[in-house]
């Protein structure tokens, strides 16, 4: 079994490139969070511009939240990538099953692959992360943003990203390889028909989804309530937000297909549009996971932007109670934190983009014959291009729409929890949603759709009509 | 029985592969395909049957030579014009994988119109539904391809090919995946297209029993047309195939 695993890695390393990139990005992400926390902490001690403990507390909470998020996003994308790899490998798996391999044993082999790729990606990402931070500190010090103070780079905590890389990739490989158990030996004989959507949709442990949603929402509300007395409410609200969001993600198989359907209708009734509508829902798990990794990125961006906007809007009240100097120091700090977070959030979007490209590419690859058939009976190249682009847009717009809604809610909750205590505002307020943000999210998700569809489109338009006749 | 030429192919050559490792799939093939005629292309495996069909149907371009639809020379057409020609003048029935899995039977039948961004007129639609009824598809219209048997799928493909009232229908091993009784049904339907719609049907097959349905049988061996005969019974065709196989 181990030999088979190593063979896969040796013969077809390309199938794990996406996982390697995502794992490295995740580890890089985690490394930077760890390093940023350390460096910012030593800076605040030396620079003295973070006078009161609340801001440090906020920084630590955010740091942990982001570490969690980094792992979470990459797990989803890696699980999706493994699902894709397993689908592409279905014939080979079916042959092994035909020859007597147990699904469980095969799946263990896949987990081993995940562990190996995860280790490689974890080490790579950590190394790059340390290098980047080491290069940035002198730059920031020279530009006057940082005060010159010794900031030791290597800490035992850095083992974490690599370990997390291995653990999350292995776990995600297990989740994503569920397909292995459903491959029947019959598929090796080639008579297998594409399963329908309803057959594919498995029971998604609805009690877990409902449990996460209700527990998370309850904690979030409780956190907000406690927030009216002390910002420590964040310690309840943040995990509450995470748990309710986890519930959303686990239940995405049920929540997102209707949204995908609605978004798909936006493209009208042309042939490429109606074909792509079908394609996006054909492997709903795949589309949903691609959309979910985007939902996470967008939710985060919007959440922090909305929280920050609330902060600025309510700043007048802060100035009234806490004095102008403290308000200015808070504002400067928020700008700094947002800068760092912006970079971190960029990672989760990059990870989501890799997942999207991967998903679209496979979608095209699997439909080679079908695209050939469509070309044979009269689909033009231009229409093929549109078909792939629409599918890409359908996924990104769905992801960003959900992310916008969730982000506003979570951002508002975060702002309420952190700011509504007497210490700050002393009361509740409505969320401030910056319009440029909404425009930016929609435009950038459309851009992402275009960029992500470039390579898959090239593949799709290169399919000759005779591909329909290929007997494989 | 035979109408005017729908397709005129002249001196077709097709060479696959890079220099030094060329495969001459077709050598100097000239042939006319006539309307109201079921023409079978027979020959051993690897003889060039599919290649000839691809060139005649505008699915691929010859290395040299010309294919004419009336006065339209295929090599002078852009990819877009060629696509539109296939969409409007040519019907296809393949051995397998004929249908788009996400679409229903009816949507598959109407797909060429959808692809062209047109809708059949009310009268044309009636006519298509009549053909679908003849093919026994009425109870299946809302099903999806995976809910159909192989023979039913082939019938849907035939309905789609007929729907656009093409000049010519190409069928590459359309019975290759079917049991013999279902295969006979499919062949009978293709044959009736030549009688009732005055269409040219080109049937690529290695099966003498299938070719026996044809009005005309072309034998290909090693990239050349070696026989061009009228309607012939299956056992004679088998002997001719054996002879060719022996000659190789
Ligand atoms: N795409 C291709 N590339 C290279 N050689 C090909 C290709 N398609 C067909 N050939 C070769 O051309 C010859 C004729 O093939 P084909 O027309 O498919 O034969 P048939 O349909 O009669 O079995 C064969 O030797 C085959 O190997
Ligand atoms: Mg062939």
TrEMBL record, chain A:
**GO CC: one term?**
plasma membrane protein complex
Membrane spanning residue stretches: 12-33, 65-88, 109-137, 157-176, 207-226, 232-256, 291-312, 332-365, 386-413, 433-455
What is the name of the protein in this document?
Putative ABC transport system permease protein
Regarding protein family, the annotation reads: Belongs to the ABC-4 integral membrane protein family. LolC/E subfamily.
Tell me the ranges covered by the ABC3 transporter permease C-terminal domain, including all copies: 65-178, 343-463
Membrane-related topology note? Multi-pass membrane protein
- Keywords for this protein: Cell membrane, Membrane, Transmembrane, Transmembrane helix
Any one of the GO BP annotations: lipoprotein localization to outer membrane
Write down the superkingdom of origin.
Answer: Bacteria
Q: Which Pfam families match?
A: FtsX
Q: Where in the cell is it found?
A: Cell membrane
Keyword flag Transcription regulation: no
UniProtKB/TrEMBL annotation, chain B:
The answer to whether keyword ATP-binding applies is yes
* Protein keywords: ATP-binding, Nucleotide-binding, Transport
InterPro entries named in the record = AAA+_ATPase, ABC_transporter-like_ATP-bd, ABC_transporter-like_CS, ABC_transpr_LolD-like, MacB-like_ATP-bd, P-loop_NTPase
Q: Which residues form a coiled coil?
A: none
An example Gene Ontology CC term for this record: membrane protein complex
Xref: Pfam families: ABC_tran (PF00005)
Per the record, the domain of life is Bacteria
A GO term for molecular function: ATP hydrolysis activity
Per the database record, which ranges form the ABC transporter domain?
Answer: 7-247
Q: Sorted alphabetically, which PANTHER family does this protein's record hold?
A: ABC TRANSPORTER RELATED, IMPORT ATP-BINDING PROTEIN
Q: What is this protein called?
A: Putative ABC transport system ATP-binding protein
Q: Which organism is it from?
A: Amnibacterium kyonggiense
